[in-house]
Amino acid sequence: MRNRPPRRCVESTPPFDRQHAEREVKHLGQPAQAVIWVDPSGAEFNIPVPPTVYPPREDTDLLARVLGQLFPRPGSTWLEIGCGSGILSLYAARNGCRVTACDINPFAVAATRRLLESNGLRGDVFEGGPGPSTDGQLGQWGGDRLYDTVVWNLPYLPTQDENAPHLGPLEEAALIDTDGTGLYARFLKMVEKGRLLHAKGIAYLTVSSSHIGQTACERAWSAGLAARIVAVQTFPDGERLSVVQIWRPYPEAEGMVVERVSSTNTSLLNMDVPVGTSLRATHQTEGRGQRGRSWSSVEGAFMTSWKLDASPSSLSATQGQVRLGAGMARLFQYLRGPGNPPNICMKWPNDLYILKGEDGWKKGGGVLMEGATRGRNTSVVVGVGLNLGVPHDSNYAGLSSLGLQPSLDGLFTMINAVIASVFENHGLGQCPEENQAVEGQVRRGDSLLGPVIYRGVQKAVKGLTSTGELLFEDGTVVDDGNLLTWSNI
């Protein structure tokens, strides 16, 4: 179980009155706690941690290990929100970053300043942070500048009911979210609006499954931001702590929109454009699916292709299609909102199916990766086709069957974020737990659309190979979806 500070419950109403304020003041008079922290390189630090200041814990260590794999270059700008004891900002300053830090606890501000100064390091440390109140204004705690790296170990407890027992105010600052909107949503909104991060900047946030960690990526995608889970730690009580990496997708790429093309994939393959460039068409006359088959869409469908990195380290076509399909299914499940049946799943390796009322499961979209080599140059693209609304007598389904009616521009923003999350390389790939989430989407598709039949024999899906092929319980591996029959469609 996470080594949390104890919750000091109170019995009276209001939750925090004069008696408890006096107890809090007495608590603040206690001496600082001496804590020893070891960084990922093995260097040891003695840290004085005043009362109410969040000390280095497992979440601090997890975030430090991620940063130690790919530390920002010396001279890069760094912002730590909710710096607590200041140890991560110390770690960044020792690695040559230009450090800014903030915390809404004044004792944490003092502790971080002292820690930097006592180690001969410099940094700007301010009181404040994201929130609904005046001290949450960016100019107070982060200035008007943009940063290469933003780090935040988010509070892991949901907002309390105002009539429930509370911690002291300064402890709540470190442990409990602010209000119904939430700090994570406020952070995403700021980044979405071009604040905090440089165009190529990256944020690393620690989130808990007991709060918003279960849907951290989906929330970012819906805001048009790329996100992937890069590290996870699970505790004996079942809580899962994750580090989510967040950035703006493809900042140098161009989004092109045309009225009509034969195929967005073919057209983009023939263009010399930067990675991340997209081509969206209102009408596509020769759309293709897997194995060169024609891909039909209904009027008003979303049809867009993206230019991808063609380096040898890039994902294989099968692996890329599966991950993208799984991400899109997760996104639309999230957009339906809590309490609603997801009613969308992926059919390995590249199709999305939607439950269309009494008509059952119908194809609503698909993903196709293709490549072309001319001389020594190789180009790779991925195309996404999604139906929005479909006629009642159509043999297809659309997002409207899910109760979703996004605009084409809004849909592009979200899918662009999912694509960047799968394919854009920022030095840290998906962790094993995220790979398990992809396999979970594949197995979910099997449970809803199957049983699956392979060469006349019913098979049970176990998962995926390392390159995305379908793996059955009996060890059979399949690399061609055309060899499979799904019993429920």
The CATH C-level class name of the largest domain: Alpha Beta
Percent helix: 25-40%
CATH superfamily of the largest domain: Vaccinia Virus protein VP39
Reported by name, the CATH topology of the largest domain is Rossmann fold
Please tell me what the overall shape is: elongated
Give average pLDDT, whole number. 86
Beta-strand content bin: 25-35%
| Rg over alpha carbons | 25 Å
Low-confidence stretches: 1-13, 160-172
β-strand number: 22
Q: What's the domain count?
A: 2
In CATH terms, what is the architecture of the largest domain? 3-Layer(aba) Sandwich
Strand order of the largest sheet: 5-4-3-6-7-9-8
Structural class: alpha+beta
Distance between the termini: 44 Å
Tell me the major beta sheet: 7 strands, mixed
Compute the number of helices: 12
List keywords for this structure.
2 domains; alpha+beta; Rossmann fold; 22 strands; BirA Bifunctional Protein, domain 2; seven-stranded mixed beta sheet; 489 residues
